[in-house]
Amino acid sequence: MDWAYFLDVDGTLIELAMTPDAIEVDHALPVLLETLHRQTGGALALISGRAVADLDRHIGILQVPRAGQHGLERRDAAGRLWRHETPEPVKRALLEALAPLLARHGGLLLEDKGSTLAIHYRRAPMLGAYVHRFLGRLVSDIGQGLQLQAGKRVVEVKPAGVDKGMAVAEYLTEAPFLGRLPVFIGDDITDETAFALVNERGGISVKVGPGRSCARYRLPGVAAVRAWLAYQPMSPHHEHP
Ligand SMILES: O=P(O)(O)OC[C@H]1O[C@H](O[C@H]2O[C@H](CO)[C@@H](O)[C@H](O)[C@H]2O)[C@H](O)[C@@H](O)[C@@H]1O
């Protein structure tokens, strides 16, 4: 059976950086992804926590389908964009509540992704537990179907009930993904829903780096992921990592 490739971005295809805009996308990445996309007949998608527009800006290769904001937005192989929105008044209330926190702690960084608001504390790691508590209280006060999403030195507030696993499941109902065995590679907590979905479908789930995971395989880091992906098109029979 042919494989369909679903790839997380930060920490999987690109090394982590101090801030979301500080990532370095070297020229080899788009070349690798374009090649894999072509050689799989288009069965490659990026599944990221970043916004789709942000992926477009940093990574380009617009012909590769992509899901952003942990599945809240998804561009399919036909170029159609599907979106779950956070209602405007809810977003306004969140931004108002976050303003004093951000004003008080210059080391924190707000990333407004549209439907999701992320507070990054990589520049002020000692504030991590505080930020988690603050946002946890905010979500329970505001309610409105919101949920917290933890990540690497980041906490996000997003609409509940949509995740990366759902985005992968949606792609698998559409050409050219339909009927293929899914492969998902990711490094973070948010990738666990996709690993679980892929495991259910008998696919290949690959966790990048250390940490607990339901993924069945491991790769040590970004360089190993890229090396493994580069090997795929050359292999006549796909082998497990
Ligand atoms: O699902 P991903 O594609 O892995 O995206 C997860 C988050 O990635 C970005 O944040 C992370 O990477 C930043 C740049 O390396 C780093 O500074 C930050 O600490 C990491 O959490 C992105 O900014 C988030 O929106 C994504 O959710």
TrEMBL record:
On the tree of life, the source organism's domain of life is Bacteria
Purpose of the protein? Removes the phosphate from trehalose 6-phosphate to produce free trehalose.
SUPFAM superfamilies in the cross-refs: HAD-like
Q: Give a GO biological-process term.
A: trehalose biosynthetic process
Catalytic activities = alpha,alpha-trehalose 6-phosphate + H2O = alpha,alpha-trehalose + phosphate
Question: Which Enzyme Commission number(s) are listed?
Answer: 3.1.3.12
UniProtKB keywords:
Hydrolase, Magnesium, Metal-binding
Q: Which cofactor does it need?
A: Mg(2+)
The family note in this entry says: Belongs to the trehalose phosphatase family.
Q: State the pathway, as annotated in the record.
A: Glycan biosynthesis; trehalose biosynthesis
Does Magnesium show up as a keyword for this record?
A: yes
Show the GO MF annotations.
metal ion binding; trehalose-phosphatase activity
UniProt protein name: Trehalose 6-phosphate phosphatase
InterPro entries annotated for this entry? HAD-like_sf, HAD-SF_hydro_IIB, HAD_sf, OTSB-like, Trehalose_PPase
